[in-house]
Structure formats: structure tokens, C-alpha cells
Amino acid sequence: MILNSLVDYYEILLERNEIEKEGWVKAEVGYAITIDEMGKVKGIVSLMQNTTDKKREKPVQRVVPVQNGRSGKNPPPYFMCDNAKYLLGAWQQSGKPDEDKKNRNQAYNYHRAAADYHCKILQNSNCALAKSVCMFFDSWDFEKNKELLNVDWEKILKQGNLIFRSYETGQDLLNDIQIQDIWNKYSKTTVDQTVGRCLVTGVLAPITKLHPVIRGIKGTQPKLVSFNKSAFKSYGKEQGENAPISEYAANAYGEALNYLLSKKTHYRIMGDTAVVFWAATKENETGYMHFMEEFLGNTEKTEEEKLLYTVNAISKGINCDYNSFELKPDTKFYILGMAPNNGRISICLFYNSTFMDLIVNVKQHYDRLSIQSPAFEQKKYPSVYDILNAMTRKRTGNRENSQSTKGIEKALLNAILFNKRYPSVLYTNILNRIYAEISQSKFALNRNRAAMIKAYLMQNYSDKKEVVSTMQLNEETEYVPYLLGRLFAVLEDVQHISIDRETLREHYFNAASRTPALVFPRLMRLANNYMKVLKRDKEGLRVVKEKEMNALMDKIHTDIPRQLSVEDQGIFMLGYYHQVQKRYEKTNKENA
Fold it and tell me: How much is the pTM?
């Protein structure tokens, strides 16, 4: 299903002229070998470009013959674009005789393999440039000529790909039409290739042995499909024959995936996971990509308004514009999550359905997150990144430093995209962060954390839904953990207005939300002392607060629990959060 979707997308990209045709790819090239008509090397020209950071240079992008990756004892050469070992037989001395001998022999063997490969393809051509390449491989000797060129071989060996350039015309040989025709004909030959029925396209075609390397994923040349150990093989089949996929399909899915990973609008790196997304439409898909950027990342209030308008329209099946691009509910939409795994790529999530189905699930996620926000909050809902950052220290916001959060990104996305249960580790991490920070900051239980606690309890504990589903303070419920959270907020306010301190939260919040029966009797005794101060100085406030406390105590018809479960600790926090927001709401109205 994944490979089929990528092949279909490749064909859409071809139709939109956004990708190279079969047999060609875009690759980074650092240098050009300039040769004359007789194949003599005239120099090696740098193609490196300056970046915004002037201390660094980057290779240029060139359209080159397809490079399917290398493996095994005798990795194959590439046509007209390869590294210095293959095209020049270059190697670097280390000062260690045994190591130098090994490197020299390896470079010599690679160069001879490249020479045989190029001459096999070009020797029968009447093209003058093709003949010059053959003459180059016949005459070039690295040991004799390396000093004459006066270049930094260490830098060239590190850089990667080189191409050929004509000395007479200054033209890259790969831009020559005759050279291109030679490669196009050769790349379609089926000599010494197994023909079978492709698992992706369903047609009889040459089966690829080596699958393409996927660029943009952490790891050493990871592949989506590979058979690099005997344990992955069966019935004596070698490499790609274990899962017959045609060369066309392998090239197509590789090109499509590398295209997605090369476009910042089409992917996000979340922890160790690369998440790519695309719309299967022949029209411009920019609007869909903008939507995903806003949904996953941090947005300003104005952008969130557009996001929410789109969610409401698409969920009702209505076409709408997003940043001047039309979005259609019935467009097929895909999201693929990938992580490195020892030279291969493991699939973490795969979403394939209509854009409307995705938006319906996103809307349900937003509905669960809906909660009263402080006046200073600029956004109505926390984004995916906001939720993930809720698990980390506020002062750093760096999720990569926290081992406990790794892997949660994909679990959270799976829950949202497929409307499944939220990962429990996300919930417990948020609770732990609140417990760790509440004694230092009253903002430890902030809007983002409270919203995710509410969403988690609604989705994962349907029996608690009635208690936590309200956006604002639930004044009807008599659920004890929620009432205790509210009562703690009232007691904290009593302390603040009586002696202008907020030490209850610092000293007692963690214990009150876990073992309330041990803590609340002491809190009530402290409250009586604060009431005496209020009676002396602020009698009116004392009456108001006493009524609030008595109203909450009257709703508790059972003994205060000795211990609260993990989910009830979250409900306690929601009660506390709602009561605090009610207090701020009243203060804001009075100030207005």
C-alpha cells in the first residue's frame, strides 16, 4: 500500500513536471573533471556554492543518471557521475603501509570497474564526447597525474560526486543530447535481469536487485526495502528477488520519497521520526501543505483562525480556500512516518484516506482539547508541538534532551490521525512535569497541559467523560477528586488574600493530589487561621470564601480518599485549573 501510493504520487509529479523522468535523478555534485576530445584531463573545477554562512560551501544540484545504492563486496559504479574513487581511482595516504596498500588497491579496483562499465555503454557510439570518455578511462593514471593537477585530493574525496565537462565547449557532458540518449537506451535494457511480476504494478517487468537509497533520514544510506542479511532471505533468492518489485516501481517510489524529503513544506522531523505528507492531486497541493504546517507547528492567532475555519468547512464536506489555494474534502491524502533502523527504514505510521476523513479526526481532537484559556493565551488550541513541549521543562523546551519523550511523537500522531486512544506515557509525563515544577511556578499547570489532560481522560476513560468534558468549571459534578482540586484552589486563594502568600501550592499540591486524606485535614486547620485574619481585616471576603468552601464540602458525601489513582490525579488538576480560571475570569470582569 505504501509503495503503491508513492508510485502513484511519482506519476502525478511527472505529470506536473516536478520530478525527473525514469532513469534520472537529482544529486549533489561538488566537482567537474574537465577533459578534451582526446580524453586528457585538463583540470578539476569546483562547483561548490557559498551558503548564507560564508564559512561553508554546498554542492550544486544536477540531474544525473539514477544511482540505486551500493552494497556487497563489489559495489557497482554509477554512470558519468560518481565519487573520486570510481572516476579517478583517487585515494589518500594515511602513513600506515598496510592501510595505504588496502586503500590503493580498493581505489584501483573501483576505477577499473567504472572504466569497464562506461566503455561497455559508450564504446559503440559515434558521439565524439562519448569517445572522449572512453579515451579518458584508457589513459588516466592517478599515481602519475595526481601531482600535476594541483588540487586538494582530501577535499575532493570527502565531497562526493564528480561529473565530466568538455574542455572545448565548457558544457557538462550529461547535458549532451547524444549522451542522454545513450543512457536512456541502456537503462531500459534487460540483459542479465530477472523478469517477474511486480508486487506494486502487477505487470511482468525486470526485477530490481538493489532498492534506492532514501536521503533525508538519519542513518547510513537507509533503504525502505532491503535484504542485507541471510535471515531476511528465503528459498535461495538474492537481494530484491525476495520481494519482486520492478525497476520502474523501485525508481518511482524512491524518487517520490526523496522528493518529499527534499521539500521543507512536505515533511517535519519529530524526534527521531521523519513525517512526510502529500496530496494525490494533479492540481497545486500547496494549500494542503500549508495546512499541515500550521496543524503540526506553532502558529500565530491569525493563522490559527484560518486553520479552524478550514477544519470546520472541510469536516462538513465544503471546499474552501487556504492561503489562496483551494482545498477539496475528497482529495486523497497521505501521511508517512519513518525512523532509521540499522541501515533500513522502519515505518512508524501510515495514513491514507481522504482529506475530509483526516480533518474530521483533527476536529474531534480539537473538541477534546477545548478548555478555558487565560486572557494572555494567543491561541485557542495547542498544536502537536505545543503538546509535545508540554512534557519538557519550560526553561528549555528541548524535547531531544529528554529520553523519556522519545517515540511519543509517532504515538501521539497515530492517536490524532486515526482517532485512537492517546498514549498513556504522554499523560504520565505531563503529570510528572507538573509535579516537578509546581513548587517553583504557578504556571506549571498551564493551559496546554490542562487541555491535554482533559483530552486524554475524555478519549481513554469514557466513564470520566461526564466529569471532564466541560470547557469551563463543572459546577454540577460531585466527583470527589474534581471537588478536591477545586477546594484546594479556594484554600490557596484564601491564603493569598489573607496573608498575601501562595505557599500552599508549593508545599502541599503534590501530596494533596495523590494522598488527599492525609493532607486536607491540615489544610482546613490552616484555612481556619486564615479566616481569623480575614474576619479582622476583610469581613466581606471572609463570608464569600466561607460560602465557597462550605458549598464544596457539602458536595463531598463520602470520606476523602486516602489515595488517588493516576487518572483521578489528572481530574484533581482539572478541578484546580478550572477553579483558578474562574477566579481570574471574575477578577478580569471586576477590573474591566
Answer: 0.79
